[in-house]
Specification:
Layout (H helix, E strand, L loop, with lengths): L1 H7 L4 H26 L3 H22 L4 H25 L4 H25 L11 H4 L7 H20 L1 H9 L1 H6 L4 H42 L3 H25 L15 H11 L1
Helix pairs in contact: 2-7, 2-10, 2-11, 3-4, 3-5, 3-10, 4-5, 4-10, 7-10, 10-11, 10-12, 11-12
């Protein structure tokens, strides 16, 4: 009860940071994930997320240190490369989009695991690189810089989603109509994938490569059960994502760690609990 009271009153500075970061991330991922799901681009977000790992590793090898801005820039670049790769395969071969996406997911993630092994085997770096946290995330270890980055990225995503509201709506439900109106459908598709890339990258410090795609897809799928109106689905998905971020973080802070007695040290992983809460919706 003492831990619950401290959580509810936000007495701990680190808890406030993690709650803010997870809530804002869930809100942004819920909204843009809903648009991606309605546009049938959910698996593309999975490809972007898995391509982030080799991007992080390449950036580390170039910079030579764990500079968060550089690592996330590398993840963003490789995410964009994965989108280009899927588009190239789909447009130049007879392979369908789902198969091309699966190829990108496996290939890029495999490359990332190999690069991670190379970095870990270097005697001058070893485990000090700490890049494993980008696979499953480490929300409890977020600092002010991480939360600032998440908040800034989420604000950009939400503002652009609001500014392109009617264009994205037409793109999701009647792309031919959008094209007939003279709107650049391909550019709008690229803009949507760019927003997915941003959400994926800012989510890496919190929930990692594996879990961030769940935060993009699950709130959107849950919201679709509750409404068949575009605006309502976006709103509900954003609320579910934000609540999942807040509640999952709260549970990880107050639940006893696995195998410990009540009152022992806390230790439940934050990212997976956020995803479980979203799935419960």
């Amino acid at each position: 009860m003492t831990d619950l009271l401290r959580l509810l009153t936000l007495q701990d500075a680190n808890t406030r940071l993690v709650l803010l970061g997870a809530g804002v991330l869930g809100l942004a991922c819920g909204v843009i994930g809903a648009i991606a799901v309605l546009r049938r681009r959910a698996l593309a977000g999975d490809a972007v997320a898995h391509a982030a790992l080799p991007g992080v590793c390449f950036a580390f090898l170039i910079v030579g240190e764990r500079n968060l801005a550089a690592l996330l820039l590398g993840a963003l670049v490789m995410g964009a490369v994965s989108v280009w790769f899927i588009s190239l395969i789909k447009s130049t071969t007879r392979i369908k989009e789902d198969a091309a996406t699966a190829l990108a997911i496996g290939g890029f993630f495999g490359l990332g695991v190999v690069l991670l092994g190379i970095i870990q085997s270097r005697p001058d770096v070893g485990s000090r690189a700490g890049l494993q946290s980008f696979i499953f995330g480490k929300a409890a270890g977020m600092v002010q810089a991480d939360v600032t980055l998440i908040t800034l990225g989420a604000a950009i995503v939400l503002v652009l989603a609001l500014a392109l509201h009617k264009e994205f709506k037409a793109l999701c439900f009647d792309a031919s109509f959008a094209s007939g109106q003279g709107w650049p459908v391909k550019r709008l598709d690229l803009a949507l994938m760019a927003l997915v890339c941003i959400c994926t990258v800012i989510g890496l410090p919190a929930v990692g490569v594996v879990m961030v795609v769940a935060l993009l897809v699950i709130p959107a799928v849950a919201a679709r059960f509750w409404s068949d109106r575009y605006g309502h689905v976006l709103l509900i998905a954003g609320v579910i994502g934000a609540v999942a971020g807040l509640l999952g973080t709260a549970l990880s802070a107050i639940l006893p760690s696995p195998g410990s007695s009540l009152g022992s040290a806390r230790g439940w992983p934050t990212g997976p609990l956020i995803v479980i809460v979203a799935s419960a919706a």
